[in-house]
Amino acid sequence: MKDVIGVVIIDDDERARDELESLLANAAETEVRAVLGGADAPAVIAGAEADLVLIGRIGSDAELEAILTAALARPEPLTLAAYGGFDAERPGATYLNGVLPPLLADRDFVHAVRLLAGGLRVREPRRQVTRLARLTPREQDVLTLLSDGLSNDQIAHRLALHVGTVKDHIRAIYSKCGVTNRVEAALFAYGIDTARPVVPRRARSWAVAGSWQVHERSA
């Protein structure tokens, strides 16, 4: 993964995109390459020196289609993800790597952006629920507090447990949820998983065809 991730922000909500630009501009992991509304995005995306496109609130399905087409038709397709006001039920959403939850903390949002650029995608909700259901009630309590940014000592104090017991619970959470560190565990609790691959072949051929009605969602 690159040391610095080049990001394009597309959002018709000026306030939302300005807030996101400020967050990412102040993070060492990211560099904002362009910030614009949906109508102007396709032409910029076609030649943008970027790794990831973050899409917020876009006015029309036609604009979204044009954005996805421009990003996926490049020789090296850009990674696509959504955030904030994006409607995950819209046509074409299947070609996104993920939709970041609106309540994700700033620190975790930046980590998620970096993971997205490396291949992160949102796991289908049914599979996500299945994995979370494997956790015991106490493990779920630990995961909730871990996701809030609490340290092992703080979790132990909050739940009246020994630190060693908390560590055992965290190891079990890692194993059951298929994650390897605290950041991924926190993101998983928000509904994000680190499964791959990124861009299915059908998505690329869809981009060339220029219509999301040409192909069904890939498995």
Descriptive key words:
219 residues; alpha/beta; five-stranded parallel beta sheet; elongated
Structure in words:
With 219 residues, the chain is an alpha/beta fold. The protein contains ten helices and five strands, in the order E-H-E-H-E-H-E-E-H-H-H-H-H-H-H. Strands 2-1-3-4-5 form a five-stranded parallel beta sheet, with helices on both faces. Helix 2 (41-47) runs parallel beside helix 3 (61-72), helix 6 crosses helix 8 (163-177) and helix 7 (152-159) crosses helix 8. It is elongated and about 55 Å long.
Break the fold down into its secondary structure elements and pairings:
Elements: E1 5-10, H1 14-25, E2 30-36, H2 41-47, E3 52-55, H3 61-72, E4 79-82, E5 98-99, H4 106-117, H5 125-133, H6 137-147, H7 152-159, H8 163-177, H9 182-189, H10 201-209
Parallel strand pairs: 1-2, 1-3, 3-4, 4-5
Separation, N- and C-terminal Cα atoms: 26 Å
Question: What is the number of helical segments per DSSP (H or I, 4+ residues)?
Answer: 10
What's the story with the biggest beta sheet?
Answer: 5 strands, parallel
**Radius of gyration, in angstroms, nearest whole number:** 18 Å
What level of helicity do the residues show? 40-55%
Sheet with most strands: strand arrangement: 2-1-3-4-5
Shape: elongated
Number of strands: 5
Element order, helices and strands? EHEHEHEEHHHHHHH
